Amino acid sequence: MDIFDITIVILAISTASYFFAVKKITKISNTNDIRPDSILSYYGKIAAIWAFVPAFSLLLFYSFLSPIFSEMVFIEKLSKIFPEHTESQLDLAFAQLQNVANGILENPDININRLAVELKSWDETSLAVRSWVVFMLLAITALFSYSRLTPKFKARKTVESFLQKLFLGAAVVAILITIAIVASLLFEALRFFEVYNIFEFLFGTHWSPNIAIRDDQVGSSGSFGMLPVLSGTLLIALIAMMVALPIGIFSAIYMTEFASKGVRDFIKPTLEILAGIPTVVYGFFAALMAAPFFRSLGLSLGMDVSSESALAAGAVMGIMIIPFISSLSDDVMNSVPQSLKDGSIGLGATKAETVINVVLPAALPGLVGAFLLAVSRAIGETMIVVMAAGHAANLTANPLEAVTTVTVQIVSLLTGDTVFDSPKTLSAFALGITLFVVTLLLNIGALTVSRKLSEKYD
Amino acid sequence: MKQHKTNTELIAKSLKRRHRKQTRLKYYGLFSVLLGISFLLILLGSITLNGYTAFQQTVIKVNVKIDENHIFGDDGKVSQDVMYATNWDGLAKKAFRKVFPEVTDRFQQRKLSDLISANSGYEIQQMMIDDPSLVGKEIEIWVNASDDVDQFIKGRLNVEVPEDQRRINDMQLSWIQTLKEKNIIKKTFNTGFFTSADSREPESSGILGAILGSAMAMVVTMFLALPFAVMAAIYLEYFAKPGKLTDFIEVNINNLAAVPSIVFGLLGLAVFLNFFQLPRSAPLVGGMVLALMTLPTIIIASRAAIRAVPPSIRDAALGLGASKMQAAVDHVLPLASPGILTGTIIGMAQALGETAPLIMIGMVVFLVDIPTGFTDTATALPVQIYIWSDSAERAFYERSSLAIMFLVLFLIGMNLLAVLLRKKFEKKW
């Protein structure tokens, strides 16, 4: 039975438990004339919870852990057949073994075939055991809870305390996700730093992640100095901000100070459509329309613009970021107290003078916060640069040349046929944790400065 | 008295300059807004201009007669082996070449065959399988033209350039002209685009496989993210005691909402694929990664929706003897559900357009089969757009534009739905 079938059985038994429990309590309380402690449905709920939760948890637990366990066992066995294999070669051999066992692949090696038969029967046994263990537990807990339920049982309290713990658990998931991100990135990154010096990674100026397979291969030095990648990221983010910041701020000024309510109600959602368009669409636009446009524009001006220029990627990314800046700034400027504006107008200042001398300075922390969030967004943006920026690392500040970014490198390092444990793929996780830390700092910075604004006026 | 007059004059004089400044600021603002809106129009407009032609597909009429020995085995039943051994492409090409009996040179014959799709044989085969009674009869079938012919007919192929620089040579152009005169080439509605998965030949590729992959991933995302988000939101709004744990949870949620999506892809790769050994490229894993990504968004929206329910509702429930949990789940939650639904739709729209994390977990695959289950190898609509825009053939350019039009229309539809729901259920307490 697969996981879906088992779940359906568990659900069915749990539902049945609900009705049996309600029936039992009704009967007992009617015959003995006892008033139940809680509303009847709570007895059903607790019975259903008792049936469902242990069995379903076991099912998930088993299903997640059994492949890991079988891999461990069989890699052990494979290592006896191939004592000279490294860890990653063993992983590969295990993947092949799985394919042989599933009949996708044929292997002439008799040892492998014997092991494949063993793996197949192991998998089948494991599946059968899973169904049995889960159903046993289901039966035990369902019957146990049924036998123990009496009208005196504090069903509501038990259900509620269970729910409350469940809700807490759901909230803690947010922490778990963060921990999982940090742990997985850090784990792989540390493995990378075992084979590559961390300072060379952070401050090296040469990035060419392809590792030579033959000794005489040219241009594949396998060096991981991330400075050119970082500089490319910053260059593109800078171009994006140069597009988005003025347009965004001026739009926000127009919306808050000059536009009538009707116009503003039209402009704001229209600009926000830009934020709702998927990034792959911007990437498509940047690579196939903006880049050729900039290139031919450059040619007509006598300049050589790369077809993967930082300018095209950055400009299109800037368009994407406009609504972030405009909406956030609009909110911030609206939260500047009306009394400040009135005071300024009352002293005879024009609207423009009020905006420039009163509103903007008062809203500055919020604007800085919006700016930081937008930069974080630009640095972490992937699809636009994957499709429109370059793949070769290039330490330059010239926006007309092709540069690469952190996200482009992560994607190109982890797609395509590579062995997972090579320094090349591990370096992607080192880049990933760098990206995570940088964006995290920017987000915290944004949060801190904008909190200052609200403290000032609340 | 004199002094006063000059002051007034001074102010009056400066007033003009200051008002000019104000007007300037206003027009800068207006200009920026218009610039933003025109970017939007350019973006959507250029993609529409590129994509709308993909609604149509050029087809060519071929008269073909399929003999029984290509389909039936010795026992007179449809035989897989026999069909497998049949050179369907050869049959299709031969049938098409009958239109131009004068072409005998082998090189030219090949150029001529290039006018129809390389998948024409497959189309004919499918037709025979669907209706075996056609076997042995002379039938008319409209097969897809090759992508180059299709692009030429749609006027997207520049034939002004020298012959050796274009994908259709002069000979082929004259044949197409003949086809036009004989009225056996036409444009029809591109049904194949909506009923097939990817293909190496642009003219036979479609988005159905990608749409199903996206849909399955969205189902997983929805079932994972929504319950967890609602539970977390209720906890944080009604049960959390102010303290370090609560603060830490809130900081985490706010930060997760701003973590780049590709980081979630790395997480999925390292944890779901490498540690838990879940299948690569599966909508199940894609949905799980997207659920992690949208969870903070939905939590934040759900909390806002719960907070918007006035405390009096809860107080009334508590006052009538309901427990804290009953007040939250039975009284506040139903009133907050339209808001939660709106937030969920917006979160799902965001997840639907997401590409980078799906690439990380290997959903960027070339796939001619339509996925049927949650653990099948699949791709998603945004990823399909990415794959096509990376291809060299110009015809894919047109098709990815049309796919984008669908994606964007669908997303705008989802967002509109969210706005309408909000309007409909918005209550002034």
In short:
The complex is a heterodimer of chains A (458) and B (429). By secondary structure, chain A is mainly α. Helices cover 78% and strands 2% of the residues of chain A.
SSE arrangement of chain B, N to C: HEHHHHEHHEHHHHHHHHHH
Portion in strands of chain B: 5-15%
Poorly predicted runs of chain A: none
CATH architecture of the largest domain in chain A: Orthogonal Bundle
Structural category of chain B: mainly alpha
What is the spatial order of strands in the main beta sheet of chain B? 2-1-3
The largest beta-sheet of chain A arranges its strands as: 1-2
Give the CATH level 1 class of the largest domain in chain B.
Mainly Alpha
The CATH superfamily label of the largest domain in chain B reads MetI-like
Query: Helix/strand-derived class of chain A?
Result: mainly alpha
Distance between the termini of chain A: 60 Å
Q: For the record, what is the CATH homologous superfamily label of the largest domain in chain A?
A: MetI-like
Rg measurement of chain B, Å? 31 Å
Mean pLDDT of chain A comes to 88
How would you describe the overall organization of this protein?
The complex is a heterodimer of chains A (458) and B (429). Chain A has helices spanning 3-32, 40-81, 87-101, 110-148, 155-195, 198-203, 227-258, 261-276, 279-300, 310-334, 338-346, 351-380, 383-388, 406-414, 423-457; strands at residues 207-211, 221-224. Chain A is mainly alpha-helical and 458 residues long. Chain A has three domains: 3-151, no CATH class; 154-195; 221-457, MetI-like (MetI-like fold), CATH 1.10.3720. A two-stranded antiparallel sheet of chain A has the order 1-2. In chain A, helix 2 packs across helix 3 and helix 12 (351-380) runs antiparallel to helix 15 (423-457). The longest helix of chain A has 42 residues, at 40-81. Chain A is flat. The mean pLDDT of chain A is 88. Chain B is mainly alpha-helical and 429 residues long. Chain B folds into two domains: 59-188, no CATH class; 208-425, Orthogonal Bundle (MetI-like fold), CATH 1.10.3720.10. Helix content of chain B is 65%, strand content 5%. Chain B contains 17 helices and three strands. Chain B has helices at residues 2-51, 80-85, 88-97, 106-113, 120-130, 147-153, 170-182, 192-195, 208-239, 244-256, 261-275, 283-308, 311-319, 324-352, 356-360, 381-389, 394-425; strands at residues 56-65, 138-144, 185-189. A three-stranded antiparallel beta sheet of chain B has the order 2-1-3. Chain B starts with a helix and ends with a helix. The model of chain B has no long low-confidence stretch (mean pLDDT 89). At the A-B interface, helix 2, helix 5, helix 7, helix 8 and helix 9 of A face helix 1, helix 9, helix 10, helix 11 and helix 12 of B.
